[in-house]
Design brief:
2 copies of one chain form a homodimer. Chain A is about 35% helix and about 25% strand. The first copy, chain A, has helices spanning about 15-35, 55-60, 75-85, 95-110, 125-135, 150-160, 165-175, 180-185, 190-200, 220-230, 290-305, 340-350, 380-390; strands spanning about 5-10, 40-45, 65, 85-90, 115, 140-145, 210-215, 235-245, 245-255, 270-275, 280-285, 320, 325-335, 355-360, 370-380, 400-405. Chain A starts with 6 loop residues before the first strand and ends in a 5-residue tail after the last strand. Strand 11 (about 280-285) of chain A pairs antiparallel with strand 11 of chain B, so a sheet runs across the interface.
Chain lengths: ~400, ~400
Amino acid sequence: MNSERGFRIGLLGRGTVGAAFEALLPQHAARIESITGLRPSLSGVLTRSGGGSFEQVLERADLIVELIGGIEPARDYVLRAMRAGRHVVTANKQLLSRHGEELWGVARTEGVQLRFEGAVAGVVPVIRVLQESLAGARIDRVHGIVNGTTNFILTEMARTGASLAEALAEAQRLGYAEADPSEDLDGRDAAAKMAILARLAFDTPVHIDQVSYEGIEQIQPDDLEYARELGLGLKLIGTAERIDERLSVRVHPAFLYPGHPLASINGPFNAVTVQSPTITEITMSGPGAGGPQTATAVLGDVISAMIPPASTPAAEHALEIAQDVVSAFYLHLEVADEPGVLAQLAQVLALQDVSVKSVLQKGLGDQARLVMVVHPLLESRFQAAMELIAGLDVMRAPPRAIRVLEEEFG
Amino acid sequence: MNSERGFRIGLLGRGTVGAAFEALLPQHAARIESITGLRPSLSGVLTRSGGGSFEQVLERADLIVELIGGIEPARDYVLRAMRAGRHVVTANKQLLSRHGEELWGVARTEGVQLRFEGAVAGVVPVIRVLQESLAGARIDRVHGIVNGTTNFILTEMARTGASLAEALAEAQRLGYAEADPSEDLDGRDAAAKMAILARLAFDTPVHIDQVSYEGIEQIQPDDLEYARELGLGLKLIGTAERIDERLSVRVHPAFLYPGHPLASINGPFNAVTVQSPTITEITMSGPGAGGPQTATAVLGDVISAMIPPASTPAAEHALEIAQDVVSAFYLHLEVADEPGVLAQLAQVLALQDVSVKSVLQKGLGDQARLVMVVHPLLESRFQAAMELIAGLDVMRAPPRAIRVLEEEFG
């Protein structure tokens, strides 16, 4: 690679993730150049229908992104790319869970990087954390929800009482399940991912055939209903754990009690918990699949392969620092216990466009107080209302306010 | 550095984290050698009381770990180390939030790495994720709980009704708060961390003085009590967000509704959520402080500095794959609606040492069923019990079983 021609990326496969990657790359090329010193661009794309040859794509590339999926010809291409001295980024869990040792061995021999964050839990950075952040930790257990399709289906079944077939149809309508969802439903997709995580966490080669797995095909709506009466929620859980210096890797449906950290992971999300005596545990969660999400993970890998990382780039596109922002507030008012107080306060609040969401009236006499939550507004406006309120005769003490974070997620 | 003498680490400071790092390094030296090809060792330690000089420690080191804390002499040492061509790993949030631009600039000029995962949220890999995984993403917001001391105190106040002073005393007793907790309580510690996260997420230099912050000193137990009636829980929240292409960075107490992803982060834990239109959001959580935890983050940085990462090491210490493991089970039995059925089943279960934790009896006649949860036992034993049960005359259908994950966390 040289800086005159930038950094050339050869893309194999233009499915959902490949197309998203192709769209993402030019949007971020300038920022990537400011981080790495090289401007990345797509130098070739190999598609099943589109003509061209792998040799041509390889010849013109500094790095190969493999998003074909499946075993062959993906394995052949990845091996040939590495033997030609190219770094490879892939999201191919099937390939790594069957031929990982061969591929990692060739990467070591050839001195090239083989990166695969997108193969497990999409953009949730579990691969990087196992390979880098926790490279110095002794890990006892990695477990979590690594299949978003089944997590969506189980969430829907529990929420609506739908059958598995109905929830699957809904998942397909929303793009959370493929036309042929059998590897998701029978647990094989999750088993491939757990084989990869187990390899990294325990330095132990794990082939997908060594992972025992059960899927969710046998789950009945009434299991979910009875379980709810017992206080349980259902997830498809993958586990890799050290037991008496042996390794167990498995995937199966499991009920969780509500306090469990994975119990609140709903819909198409993934979450992985890594446990180690030194660190207790780290949990990471986020969208487990999706074209743009997985393409973002692939792009992060591409950037890492372009440079030895951990350089903080110069601040070339700095933002201005803002002061006034919008917040909701909790408001605690110690007030005189007399008629008309609430009306008087409501009037002051209305003057500043402060809109009350909920209110509690507590205590009598010297203990009388109003506690309320107001809808989001500019903090400067709220401060103005607070100053007006502080000056009212009916206040027995200065008002107290604490911000309220509204739910703005998924 | 050369491979004969291994990789030499000079340690500045031997407080809680420094001592934990010194203990951790030899335990993991062999594994690190198998990843990087070089065996790391401590070549010198500089302590306030212990004699020796910075020059001596620097001379004998390939990399400097700075765990002195505070501004000077930490700043001087870090600058001199980088100008002498050494990589530096630090956990010094005060230093980075005040002199980050100077330090990052020198790191770029000198072509050395300056890593600082331990400076924010301990071993929770938020720095690495912002710098590497999401280097290709446009980030809209980073927010979370980045001070474990105040999160422990607020959790205790809500749980027990304790005053702030009582909860602080408990935190100090358990080692979650320092003798002088003022920077935790007044929000300054969290503000320093948010300045660093904002710099990385938004490519914008942020000095701690540009972060508006409020602490938890003013929080009264009755605020927590009334808020609970409104369905709210209190956290100290740090936020860095893009608002109309300006940047707001702030720290303040805030109430959360129970469905909020940060609402379930309790005790001394930290959690950070990164939001971006492409990826929706990633949340990472784990212990936010503690000597061994932060030392693990420092060690991960050291390993990354030793090699361009993303090499999957050869499997030199592979584990044997285990088959039989211990699980709890949910058991769904369609049974004849006649006297003595439960007794008969209980007898079969007892024979295989299956111990029942809870049981529901549902329906009548053709709908009669027993749903139970049994305590953890070897799966092979449970399968044997299932086979016996399947053979009983009182069963109207094959038994159905689903695993139950017990809460095994903090």
